[in-house]
């Protein structure tokens, strides 16, 4: 069995963890209700699951390691999320690579040393970027598109020891309690990896998801709803303005969508507000209580404003003009209470019973969503399924 000194092991933990990112989607059973994944093609990281649970994982004997350099490409519009995790000693020593604010962040825990470092260029521009990681003595070096990104040195005061046994690897999640992280971050990552070149290892990876999501060849910024998913928020997290206004804005090609864009309801009530679009009739319909308005004009933005006595709907059309519609709220005095205590669903129709029951899913791309003037991050939803939160197929 190969013998690894502590300093070399730090680099190996880092670089071998990167191996996970190169394996592609080729599912085969292994008798343990797990799907084995291998290959070198693209892999989507943001598949729905428990937010910290890895998408894939594997275990390798340290004696099998022969290379300490790895490279891969990553593409995302998401500013934050887990890329991969690796550990030894069953999680006593661990390493995490993620994005935060669009830049790479490494966190390492090893014996008496805790390190967190972030830097390099922003990577969440929707372009493919090449990352290369290598170990040089006590230093781990990250290159981004061929130029210096991060360099981390680690040296413990404890006696160097022989490191043997197994290394655990995980993609898109971690195998330790998230409270152990030095810097907290949102783990969900809408992004893809491809063209991995990993340590000359050829072992299978395992995943317990039924079907792995695809990476689209071309993408644009936005949130994509494939017709089977939604995002639910507690409306209480969106403060009401001093004048009582509630404003929600959507951008996109509404005539290329189909299904429910948004619904709002209180606990145990019928939906108070529904916004839906029909791709066949090219009609966008807004329902508030028993009142309904339909819009057939071509527009790229829809601004909905709940005021104290009216509901204003503004359409920005392809021409330099706006169309404003309004509904009186005199017959709906309880809408503010519903907003303070209700739920907002993006991409589906909330049911009348359980708050989380959603139907009539949206198919299409919302290029931008704002609530009260702030961009809405679907990763922050209290419940989210089957949605690409930061990218749409182009």
How would you describe the overall organization of this protein?
This protein is mainly β and 394 residues long. It folds into 2 domains: 6-215, Jelly Rolls (Sandwich), CATH 2.60.120; 221-393, Jelly Rolls (Sandwich). The chain contains 2 helices and 34 strands. A 7-stranded antiparallel beta sheet has the order 23-22-21-20-27-18-33.
Which short descriptors sum up this protein?
7-stranded antiparallel beta sheet, 6-stranded antiparallel beta sheet, elongated, disordered N terminus, Jelly Rolls, single chain, mainly beta, 394 residues
> What is the makeup of the main sheet?
7 strands, antiparallel
Distance between the termini: 50 Å
**What structural category characterises the helix and strand content?**
mainly beta
Which regions are unreliable across 5 or more consecutive residues at pLDDT < 50?
1-29
Proportion of strand residues: over 45%
Instruction: Could you tell me the CATH topology label of the largest domain.
Output: Jelly Rolls
Mean pLDDT rating: 81
Name the CATH architecture of the largest domain: Sandwich
Q: In CATH's first tier, which class of the largest domain applies?
A: Mainly Beta
For the largest sheet, list the strands in their spatial order. 23-22-21-20-27-18-33
User: What percent of residues adopt helix (DSSP H or I)?
Assistant: under 10%
Overall shape: elongated
- For the secondary structure, the number of strands is 34
- How many domains make up the coordinates? 2
User: How many distinct helices?
Assistant: 2
Organism: Channa striata
Keywords: Disulfide bond, Glycoprotein, Lipid-binding, Repeat, Secreted, Signal, Steroid-binding
GO cellular component, one term: extracellular region
Signal peptide: 1-24
